[in-house]
Amino acid sequence: MSLVMKRIAIGKIATLVRHYWQLRFWIHMRIWSFISRPVNLSRFAQIGARVFVHYSVSFIRCDKIFLGSFVDIHRNSNIWCELKTGDHVRIGPLNNFYGNIVIGNYVMTAAGVVLAGGCHGTVNGDIPMMFQQCEAKAGIRIGDDVWIGANAVVLEGVVVHDGAVIAAGSVVTHDVPKYAVVGGNPAKIIKYRK
């Protein structure tokens, strides 16, 4: 193949790549314009204004989803639950949410956070646990102005009150008081913000 033919081929490939990214940007903008205003998707989901959900986020077996305004759900997160968020919520990448979860306003979660608001059934010893009904009881409640650090785990039945901070890598098994900073496994109160 001559040098001229190679340059023509490279030019055609570059044009195809440019058109691909232009098309992808156009689709993204059309989706953004669709979800940048309040949407009511029947009984399954209600979405507020200016909601961003990355295309790699998975909503699996979700009965109801209520997202407030200015909510960002970043890449590769898995939502396996009934989820209700307030306004101005940022859910970081690689998060996993299970069970019944209610999140307040101005909440941030870093990467790799697990909110385990349900567990596998363990009642019947004759049936493998993976085939038993999931036991979502109390769920998880997170108040306003909460920050959950990277790779933290919050277990079922926990209430995280307003203004709390959960340190990275913590395993939260009990309720977190207002304005407390908790850390460790299991999480213990380190100090108070106020």
Q: Which characteristics define this entry?
A:
1 helix, single chain, 17% helix, 194 residues, eleven-stranded mixed sheet, eight-stranded mixed sheet, alpha/beta, extended, 19 strands, UDP N-Acetylglucosamine Acyltransferase, domain 1
Describe this structure in words.
- 17% of the residues lie in helices and 33% in strands.
- It has 194 residues and is of the alpha/beta class.
- The protein folds into two domains: 35 residues; 154 residues, UDP N-Acetylglucosamine Acyltransferase, domain 1, CATH 2.160.10.
- The strands form two sheets. Strands 1, 2, 4, 5, 7, 9, 11, 12, 14, 15 and 17 form an eleven-stranded mixed sheet that branches.
- The N and C termini lie far apart (73 Å).
In short:
The chain is of the alpha/beta class and 194 residues long. The protein has two domains: 35 residues; 154 residues, UDP N-Acetylglucosamine Acyltransferase, domain 1, CATH 2.160.10. The protein has one helix and 19 strands.
Taking the alpha carbons of the first and last residues, their distance comes to 73 Å
In the CATH hierarchy, the architecture of the largest domain is 3 Solenoid
Number of helices: 1
Q: How many distinct beta strands? A: 19
SS strand fraction: 25-35%
Inertia-based shape: extended
Write the layout of secondary structure elements.
Elements: H1 3-35, E1 39-41, E2 45-47, E3 52-53, E4 58-59, E5 65-67, E6 71-73, E7 78-85, E8 89-91, E9 96-103, E10 108-109, E11 114-117, E12 140-142, E13 147-148, E14 153-155, E15 159-160, E16 165-166, E17 171-172, E18 180-183, E19 188-192
Parallel strand pairs: 2-5, 3-6, 4-7, 5-7, 6-8, 7-9, 8-10, 9-11, 9-12, 10-13, 11-14, 12-15, 13-16, 14-17, 16-18
Antiparallel strand pairs: 1-2, 18-19
